[in-house]
From TrEMBL:
Organism taxonomic ancestry: Eukaryota, Metazoa, Chordata, Craniata, Vertebrata
PROSITE patterns: JMJC
Keywords per UniProt: Signal
Keyword Signal carried by entry: yes
Name assigned to this protein: JmjC domain-containing protein
Pfam families, A to Z: Cupin_8
Length: 273
């Protein structure tokens, strides 16, 4: 049986197209359990913003990743690895049981993260983990992300399955975090990497290296979204996407980015260097 050339061409084209997000209300792909982290859903943020980033399932090949995204633009990978076990280990009860007495280093949630404070993880979760106030500066907001003691957290990280596509001549370093609704880090840049949400949702705002955004380094992302974002002309709008459990965002080298946790979120990044 001969294949219709038109149908054959369409079939080939579909192999190269990223998958689309299926539900405009953002409910597809979200596990029923929040791991015990979403104790106060009234503080969750509902606006996920537009989706300007390609989303691929496992049909994306390594060659396509390198050619189309690795050095040029962000991409979301969906279902590339199974972190069901890691997600279970990251529930609120399990993390408090296994790591509650471990010291974690908190940094101020501003562009340069000047101040750092060490507290037991249980104290952070029970007393400091809260929704972001619009009236609080990023320089006065303590954020748990990045400064992980790999010796003490190794037993958790060894269960994480990182994204399978890396860049030539690089290796990955993990940064793990837990943060309240409305928190996030303001615009900054660094090398390439991946960000995966284990629980919650994280909204991303990205600009290419040559397009530095306008922001105050000591203000929070939440205040930027309230005060600056609405008045941006179309040509100055960021590239945006909101990621959920099971989705991983890849961002290239030197891309400006800011994040906003829409819920109390648990997340891990893999920095490639």
């Amino acid at each position: 049986m001969e294949c219709n050339p038109a149908i054959q061409a369409i079939s080939i084209l579909l192999l190269w197209l990223p998958v689309a997000r299926l539900c405009p209300d953002g409910q597809d792909g979200v596990p029923g359990s929040d791991g015990g982290w979403n104790a106060d859903p009234d503080h969750n943020l509902t606006d996920e913003g537009p989706c300007d980033v390609d989303i691929w399932d496992k049909s994306l090949t390594y060659s396509q990743f390198i050619q189309q995204y690795a050095y040029s633009k962000p991409v979301v990978l969906r279902g590339f690895s199974d972190n069901t076990k890691f997600q279970l280990l990251c529930s609120r009860d399990n993390l408090l049981r296994d790591y509650g007495e471990k010291l974690v280093r908190l940094s101020t949630a501003n562009t340069y993260s000047y101040r750092k404070v060490d507290v037991p993880f249980q104290e952070f979760v029970e007393h400091l983990l809260r929704p972001q106030s619009l009236d609080t500066l990023g320089s006065d907001t303590l954020y748990f992300f990045g400064d992980n003691n790999f010796t003490e957290w190794r037993s958790l990280f060894e269960h994480y399955q990182p994204p399978r596509y890396s860049l030539p001549n690089t290796s990955g370093a993990y940064s793990f975090g837990v943060a309240g609704a409305g928190t996030g880090v303001p615009f900054h840049w660094h090398g390439p990497g991946y960000s995966e949400v284990i629980y919650g949702r994280k909204r991303w705002f990205l600009y290419p290296p040559e397009k530095e955004p306008h922001f105050h380094p000591n203000h929070t992302t939440l205040s930027w979204v309230r005060d600056t974002y609405p008045s941006l002309p179309p040509e100055e709008r960021p590239i945006e996407v909101t990621i959920r459990p099971g989705e991983v965002l890849y961002f290239p080298d030197h891309w400006w980015h800011a994040t906003l946790n829409l819920d109390t979120s648990v997340f891990i990044s893999t920095f490639l260097g």
